[in-house]
Write a structure and sequence with these properties.
This protein is mainly α. The protein has 4 helices and no strands.
Length: 90
């Protein structure tokens, strides 16, 4: 017997986070952003902690992309400098 998403969330909103099992914490972390916003009042500080975790994860992805773009730009710049030197020597 599977419980509906609404019933599952209702159970999570009455959860004592200090005594939560690992499975209950995994279920909390798996809720969508919309559900997190909807129940943030009853989840106390969990919403703040979880939104901070999600923000940190998103920023890490952007940081990785910026690092790769920097590497590509450095390689292209070095290539252009070398081609410029070769063209001036002819």
């Amino acid at each position: 017997m599977t419980e509906s998403n609404e019933e599952r969330l209702r159970d999570l909103t009455t959860l004592d986070l200090m005594n939560a099992t690992d499975e209950e914490l995994r279920r909390l972390k798996g809720i969508t952003d919309e559900e997190l916003l909807r129940y943030s009042r009853t989840l106390d500080l969990f919403a703040v902690v979880e939104s901070t975790r999600r923000l940190r994860k998103a920023l890490h992805k952007e940081e990785t992309a910026i690092k790769w773009l920097t590497v590509v730009l450095v390689v292209l710049t070095v290539t252009l400098v070398i081609l410029g030197i070769v063209a001036l020597r002819r």
